[in-house]
Design brief:
12 helices, 5-stranded antiparallel β-sheet, Transferase(Phosphotransferase), domain 1, globular, single chain, 7-stranded antiparallel β-sheet, alpha+beta
């Protein structure tokens, strides 16, 4: 990191430049400050690349594609301008060393740290691949070790430079890094998602042993080793060997998809400090270096984690390539035009109208995972990955009192029917009960193995349903605190839960079967259960393009909304038939809610926008609700239906006035 000189830009877009973080073949990266004080990393593309034919168009397309990757394992690009004299993109600033730096300083990582790394990188690839992208260059220098887990970052703009398949750089250069390429890449075949999995295996082996599996005396020998030699896993702990060997299968078809890898890795032990002490010292040094540069005791770093959108709510995030101080997260990845939906969708409103006004609520320092109104609508409660639950005065748009604190990230929150009890659950696997308004804790219990990823409270306040990111739903009797037999979906891991107004019927959204996860074409399902006799009601609701990550009942309980892929579908609860054409989202549909009058549907997406739909004529109400710079993870209507609250991976909550349905 170095101070800026007179020849350096003072501003790039709306960001004030503070220092230079580093330089590379594709350009240089500057440390910048956003108008709200957050630190960002701004990548300036090298001037020689701007003149490459078609570069600007490819750069714009790659940035757009990258913005569809989001969730707990990746973070969106904050801003970009492909038409500037010098094209640039801005992303979050993440203090921390690269994996290669960490291994040089601390030696091979212990088994639990490598398992944490494996889970984070597999989860990152899962999100990247589900967006139709290929990383192409996963390697230790493109993995950042932050205080709360690994981040996959990528400073390359290789796809934008290369152009279309077959339009290789002059000189026959290969895309990727020889020691961490897949055999297909080493033989100059197009990069694939299976190739990313092979690279992941090589990265994990390096983390566990401190050496590159296929390193030779030169590039030709290294490439030969990648294609022909079996890996020597001497020194790799026994629990990691089958995981790494599966990734390193020479045949791409034999490698597990990221979703399958997460199942193989299993539950990782929680840890406040996941890395060896020497690595955490490096992290502290990065933060101190930035603080010294700014002349401040501690910088405010832009939130690096978008929540678990695959509601596998560990705080493991995607990222790649490290520079001194901080690094650009989720820069430009390579796009593969594999999937798209041909389903007919409900008509959208014109986007030409001015976006509606919203009021941001700022205070959280990480992803806002869940929001809930009190029954009187005067207070909004929000849960965040920053390990706090906060209460907000809706009318005054101000925080009420001190935040309620958890030992780790908070993923779910619910308010009792009388407004005096608050239920919260998070990454430590405990559900806690608090008394409102003061927030005094009265009780709590462990919900199962692993983080509590989602929960739903029955309207009558008697039953709490919880999930720990697996295929089971636990039902808690809140009168005595006892748990009955778990519901087993037999249709993949649980992603979403919602109670019907009758307090007996529970909707469950899932990832789909393990077989589908292996093929990379996971098709989630929605199910209905009777929580009292533990009986599944009717057949699964299917036809989704991806995991079902949000479910909601209409106020009369007759209709279920379920979001899978880029569409939200409506289903008749009585016969499980789909109702009309689905409603499109900008990106994946993560959360949805019906208005209290039953005439309005709201849906929030990975594109950072929410949409309102009139269910009578199935038309969009007004323009998209824009303002968030991250994924919308949760949204709720106020009890009177006049306000919509949205929580985002950008760390903010927004309140939107809701126009009346006609």
């Amino acid at each position: 990191m170095r101070q800026l000189t007179g020849s350096d830009p003072v501003r790039v877009g709306r960001y004030r430049m503070l220092a230079e973080l580093g330089r590379g073949g594709m350009g240089r990266v500057l440390l910048g400050s956003a108008p709200d004080g957050r630190l960002v990393a701004v990548k300036l593309v090298h001037a020689r690349l701007v003149d490459v034919p078609g570069f600007r168009d490819r750069f714009r397309a790659e940035v757009t594609a990258t913005r569809t990757v989001s969730g707990a394992y990746t973070a969106p690009v904050i801003d970009a301008d492909a038409d500037a004299q010098t094209p640039w993109l801005a992303s979050v600033c993440v203090p921390g060393p690269s994996l290669s730096e960490a291994v040089r300083a601390a030696g091979p990582l212990p088994e639990q740290s490598v398992l944490r790394l494996a889970a984070g990188l597999a989860a990152a690839l899962l999100e990247i691949h589900r967006a139709g992208l290929v990383h192409r260059d996963l390697k230790p220098s493109n993995v950042l070790l932050a205080a709360d887990g690994p981040k996959v970052i990528d400073f390359g703009v290789a796809r934008a430079v290369e152009g279309d398949e077959g339009d290789r750089p002059q000189g026959g250069l290969l895309a990727g890094t020889p020691g961490f390429m897949s055999p297909e890449q080493a033989e100059d075949l197009p990069p694939t998602q299976a190739g990313d999995v092979f690279s992941l295996g090589s990265v994990l082996a390096m983390a566990a042993t401190g050496r590159g599996l296929f390193d030779g005396p030169g590039v030709p020998q290294t490439l030969y080793n990648v294609v022909h030699l079996d890996p020597d896993l001497t020194g790799v702990p026994d629990r990691l060997r089958p995981i790494i060997l599966a990734c390193l299968a020479k045949d791409p078809g034999e490698r597990p998809a990221p979703g399958r890898l997460l199942s193989m890795i299993g539950q990782v032990a929680p840890a406040v400090r996941p890395w060896p002490p020497a690595v955490h010292r490096l992290i502290d040094e990065r933060r101190t270096e930035i603080a010294r540069l700014l002349g401040a005791p501690a910088p405010t770093v832009a939130p690096a984690s978008g929540p678990g959108i695959a509601r596998y709510r560990g705080r493991l995030v995607a990222g790649g390539g490290a520079l001194a101080g901080c690094a650009v997260l989720a820069a430009v990845l390579a796009w593969a035009p594999w999937s798209g939906s041909s389903a007919r969708t409900a008509p959208s409103a014109s986007r030409s109208a001015a976006p509606p006004v919203s009021w941001p609520l700022r205070g959280h320092t990480a992803s806002v995972k869940d929001v809930a109104f009190t029954p009187d609508g005067r207070t909004l409660v929000t849960a965040s990955d920053d390990a706090t639950v906060r209460r907000w005065d809706v009318a005054g748009r101000a925080q009420l009192g001190k935040p309620v604190r958890h030992p780790d990230g908070v993923n779910a929150v619910a308010v009792g029917a009388d407004g005096t009890v608050l239920y919260t659950g998070g990454d430590d696997g405990f559900m806690r009960i608090w008394r409102l308004p003061g927030g005094g804790r009265s009780n709590g219990f462990e919900t199962g193995l692993g983080p509590l990823t989602d929960m739903a409270l029955s309207p009558d306040g008697r039953v709490l349903a919880t999930s720990n990111g697996n295929q089971y739903v636990r039902l808690w009797d809140l009168d005595d605190g006892k748990v009955g037999p778990a519901l087993e979906t037999r249709a993949g891991n649980v992603e979403a839960l919602a109670f019907a107004p009758d307090s007996r019927t529970l909707a469950v959204g899932t990832t789909g079967t393990e077989r589908n996860l292996d093929t990379g074409n996971s098709e989630g399902v929605a199910q209905l259960w009777n929580v009292y006799d533990k009986r599944k009601l009717g057949a699964d609701m299917t036809g989704f393009d991806s995991w079902v990550e949000g479910v909601a009942f209409s106020p009369d309980g007759r209709t279920l909304a379920a979001g899978g892929g880029e569409l939200t579908r409506l289903w008749n609860v009585s016969d499980h038939r789909q109702i009309g054409a689905p409603f499109p989202c900008r990106g994946r549909c993560y959360t949805m809610a019906f208005g209290p009058d039953g005439r309005t549907l709201a849906a929030g997406s990975s594109g950072g926008e929410a949409r309102l739909w009139n269910l009578a004529d199935r038309r969009q109400i007004g323009p998209d609700l824009t303002g968030h710079t991250g994924v919308i993870l949760s949204l709720k209507f106020s009890p009177d239906g006049r306000t919509l609250a949205t929580g985002s991976s950008d760390g903010t909550v927004r309140l939107w006035p809701v126009p009346a349905s006609r």
